Each structure stands twice: as structure tokens, then as C-alpha cells.
Amino acid sequence: HAKEKGRNNYQFFDVRMNEHAQSQLSMANKLRIALNRNVIHPHYQLKVDIRTGKPIGLEALARWNDENGKPVSPAKFIPIAEEHGLIARVGSSILQQVCVQIRMWQDMNFEFGSVAFNLSAQQFRDPNLLSDIREAIEDNKIDPKHLEVEVTENTMMDDVEDAIQILSNLKDMGLKISIDDFGTGYSSLSYLKRFPVDTLKIDRSFINELTLDSDDAAIVSAIVSMAQKLGVSIVAEGVENIEQSQYLKEIGCYHVQGYLYAKPCAGGELPLVWEHVIREFAE
Ligand code: C2E
Ligand code: MG
Ligand code: MG
Ligand code: MG
């Protein structure tokens, strides 16, 4: 009996594995088509200074609607792009569009601060990264101070010496550096002072229940005071309600990003959303 059951389980597992592999492959193919058609675009989400209620900058987030017009989450398609050798194309398409957008905003005298873009582990280690960024900057004649990269702790910890070199090169080019999803990875605090980073972005998972869970509150306070002592700025991700924002203000975390202020939107809409946030939140 046990043997039979075991075998059935095995077959079930096998079928499921197969289905999973199939759907991954089918998504990779759709992604390839999407890249050929240039239908992956950045949206932009504001970061706000809660002391003044004014926006201070933006994060670019990749958006893709499948052939039925249904949005596919980047949390899904970015890992697939990595596994199927497509991440460099996704990355350069986003970077290109971000730089064109920055050029347009500069020309309109729209002061957006900076635009951060996300780099996955493979993009970060790509030997062409620096020259691609340099080229995008030069082609669009933008000021590199308007650009920022977001990299996770784990990406950096893969090879620390190498990471420090890449980050230093990016800084030398004039870009700012953020550590994304901070607190969820395995970076050791001793490395933090060696990485030339400007900003820590506290992961949304600690902000979710910030005002309900005393452990999360303790973790966030500790990150904020450590950052202050290291002279690194802080952004809290995923702020959805006024209680969270109030609490963050009390502990000295003034820069936030989240649905409370604005959801990511298309570049064309962004200046209006920016104005809207100022009207709603600035005192
Ligand atoms: P991330 O870089 O940590 O981006 C923040 C995510 O939190 C975004 O999800 C954003 O829409 C979401 N978010 C912002 N405020 C709130 C909030 O108040 N509540 C909730 N529930 N969510 C909020 P999104 O756009 O789905 O992106 C997911 C992840 O995919 C990103 O996490 C990033 O790791 C990756 N990603 C997105 N775009 C790119 C890209 O162009 N390149 C690469 N390599 N990765 C990207
Ligand atoms: Mg990010
Ligand atoms: Mg994040
Ligand atoms: Mg994330």
C-alpha cells in the first residue's frame, strides 16, 4: 500500500513539476514577444518627505500587460527573465525609457528629483552595465544626478569585493545607490559601512504591521537609528495608512513610498500625480 501511494505521490509531483515548467516556458516566450514589440514600460511611484508632504523622487517599476491586456507582476516576470536570459533586454529597455522620460521632464522644467531603477542580481553583475548606463546618459544628455540604482542586500553579498567595486564605479559616474528591501536579506551590518550606499529602503514587510506588531516597530526603529548614525538616508516602503506614516515621523524616518501617497503611474500622468500629492499632503 505504502509503496503504491508513494508512487502516486511521485507521479503527481512529476505532473505538477511539468505544468510549472511549461507555464514558465510559455511566459518566457510571451516575454520575448513583448520585448520585440516594446510593450514593457516603466511606471513611476513617488517618494514623499512626510515633514513637508512634498514628493522628493521616483522609482521606476516595470509594467507588462499580457496579450489579453492583463497585467503580469514584475515579481513574476523578472525572475523568469533572469532564468531565460532576457533580463538584460528588459533592463536596457527600462533604462532607455527612463532616460528618455528624464530628458522630457528636464525639458519641461519639471523637477522630479531623481528616478531610481531596479537592478536584479544578473543585471548588477553584467559586465556591460556601466557602459550601458553611460551610453543611455550620454544619448539622452541627462544629468546622472537624476539617476539612482536599487540593489538588494543579497545581490551585493554574493561577492562583496566585486559589489563594492561596481557600486564605486556607479557612484563615480554620479549615480546614487539604494539598498532595496532592506532587512529581508542577509547582509551583515559590518558590510554596510563598506558599501558606498546613499539610502536604505526598509522592506514593506516591516512596515505592514508597524503600528500593530511591536517586533516590527523595534526592527524599524533600530534600522532608522543605525542609518542615522552611519549617515545613510532611509526610505520606508509600502506605507499604506496615516498611522504608519505618523509613527515613522515620530521615529525620524521622513522619506516614505506607498499607496497612501501614490500608486505607480505612467510617466505622462506623473506630473499631475505629483501636483495632486502636493495639494493633498503639503502643509
Ligand atoms: P521593489 O523594487 O521593492 O518595488 C516596490 C514594490 O512595492 C512595487 O511592486 C510597488 O508597486 C509596490 N508598492 C509600493 N507601495 C506599496 C504599498 O503601499 N503597498 C503595497 N502592497 N505595495 C506597494 P511591483 O511594481 O509589483 O514590483 C515588484 C518587484 O519587482 C520590485 O520590488 C522589484 O524587485 C521588481 N521590479 C520591478 N520593476 C523592475 C525592473 O525594471 N527591473 C528589475 N530588475 N526588477 C524590477
Ligand atoms: Mg525597488
Ligand atoms: Mg523594495
Ligand atoms: Mg521587493
TrEMBL record:
Coiled coil residues, start to end: none
Superkingdom classification of source: Bacteria
Complete protein: which residues are present?
A: 729 to 1011 of 1011
Residues covered by the EAL domain: 24-278
This one is known as Putative Diguanylate cyclase
